[in-house]
Amino acid sequence: MSDDIGLAAVSLFRFTPNADSTTLSLDVCREIFLHLPAKSLVRFRAVCKAWCAVIDEPYFVRAHTNKQLSSNSSNIIIILNSTGPPFHSLYSFDLADLKFANLLQKIAVTPLNFTPSGLSLTRAFPVSTCNGLILVTGKSLEIWNPLTHDRLKLLRGKCTPRKPKREAIGLGYDYTTDDYKVVAIHGHRIRRRFHARDNFAFKTHVYSLRSDSWRNVENCPIYDAEYPWWGPRGPGVFLNGALHWAMFNSPYAKDRIIVFDLGTETYRQLQAPPLRKRDGVNVQGRYLNVLDGCLVVSDFAQAYFLGDELEHYDVWLLKDYGDTDSWIKLISFENEECESYSIRDSLRPIAFMKNKTQILLQDDSMFWMKNYCCGLLVFDVESNSMKRVHIPGLTVTLYIQYIPGTIFRLHDNCGVNGSRRRRTRLGKRRSNMKMSDTT
Question: Which residue ranges does the record annotate as region Disordered (predicted)?
């Protein structure tokens, strides 16, 4: 269907008798492009310079991204641990291909020919996503666009975090300045020579894609004076112009959600849902995620006296972001149900399906077990039942994320007026000139 629309746009552009109709046809093409998936627009950039200019317009990129976010035409981007080379590979498939009635069918999985150098579990792993972009952490910080094969390595500076793996870090979008930002929170101990108790501080580093630089902002507040070392950890979740971190798993501090507003660059708190008490259980994880524009909390626990079997699994959804009393429980499994579905670890909600009556879940236990092709499940809300998704050819799933395709070009928007792209081109030109002089 999208190819037919594209051919119609081609005919409108190429067979225009005069300049006025050409201008009109570009406006029509712009409107048609707005309804096409991002993967089609990536191909259409090569048709002609006029189309490329239209697709690369900053206003059009923002409008198309918002259109993709509001619709359900996104893809699931998967990073897999395969049995043979390449050790990690990227795949995608359409969410519409999954049907609860027949999950044993062969799912059309498309390999993404995008394998950045140095991609391995010990060197690089996705930690945060925003509007189709993926933040990857390892020895360095990088932003990927799997659709356009763009890869941007963040420059190091005085404010660059030294150990990205040990920090709370996230990628988000600032609507007020039309800028993508990376936020890293680094907790460290401030040792006092003449004090019995050390102090703690959580420094906040912010990277701006538009300025291509790092800077320090206000420190993350200490929310619990009795346990000052307990702060935000792990990947940040982007929603409503802010990054969110969960502070759930402390056996001492109170459960809370820390919010960093990217526009004002200030912190605030968000009340957590009424999670179950931890008495008698070994809590393994409580995670944040976004489901159809709503914040969700996954809560699972393992009990010692049950031989490390899953005690319960709950999913809470914040229906109204501004109202903390609007937490509702989407899923609730007890020990018997978890055992019947062979659930041994956490489940992470990925996306809604079929008019929000089904939920796609990732089973983290499949990382350690090889009994299934893929760690995906579909939960039917109406029947309160669940089925596993089998994708032939895929082995242990490391990472699954539901993201929209985006035509945003990282290097063209990095630095003032794309100065990173100009510096890169200038460096290549100088190196070519040196090579020609030597020959």
Answer: 419-439
**Total-model pTM:** 0.82
Q: How many C-beta neighbours within 10 Å does residue 157 have? A: 12
Instruction: Work out the mean pLDDT of the chain and round it to a whole number.
Output: 73
CB-based contact 56:46 (threshold 8 Å): no
CA-closest candidate to residue 330, choices 363, 310, 352: 352
CA dihedral for 204, 208, 214, 217, sign (positive or negative): negative
Residue-wise pLDDT for 353-390, tens only, equals 767 788 888 876 654 444 445 677 888 888 777 777 77
Closest CA to 185 of 227, 236, 225, 136: 236
CB of 287 within 8 A of CB of 316?
no
Is the pLDDT at 111 greater than 70, yes or no?
A: yes
Q: pLDDT digit string (tens) for 297-312? A: 888 776 554 455 556 7
Query: In terms of C-beta distances under 8 Å and separation of at least 24 residues, what long-range contacts does 30-37 make, across chains too?
Result: 30/54, 30/60, 32/5, 32/6, 32/8, 33/9, 33/60, 33/64, 34/60, 34/63, 34/64, 34/67, 35/5, 35/67, 36/2, 36/5, 36/6, 37/2, 37/68, 37/73, 37/405
Determine which of 51-60, 113-122, 191-200 has the lowest per-residue pLDDT on average: 113-122
> Residue 180 burial by CB count (10 A; 0-12/13-18/19+): exposed, middle or buried?
buried
104-123: average pLDDT: 59
| Token pair of 359 as six digits | 């939920």
- Sheet containing 266-270: give its strands across: 237-239, 242-247, 256-261, 266-270
> What single string gives the DSSP state of each residue in 49-70?
HHHHHHHT-HHHHHHHHHHHHH
Spatial distance between the Cα atoms of 204 and 183, rounded to a whole number of angstroms: 7
**264-299 per-position pLDDT tens digit:** 999 998 888 888 776 555 556 678 888 888 899 888
User: Distances from the Cα of 294 to the Cαs of 255, 322, 350, 403, in angstroms?
Assistant: 19, 11, 12, 14
The C-alpha angle with vertex 198 and arms to 195 and 204, in degrees rounded to 5, equals: 140
Phi, psi dihedral angles at 315 (to 5 degrees): -130, 120
Inter-residue contact 80 to 395 (CB < 8 Å) = yes
Task: State how far the Cα of 264 lies from the Cα of 237, in Å rounded to an integer.
Answer: 17
For 90, the token pair is 């990227």
Cα(121)–Cα(88) distance, rounded to whole angstroms? 8
pLDDT at 256: 83
Q: Is the pLDDT of residue 147 over 80?
A: yes
Two tokens, residue 173 = 């979008």
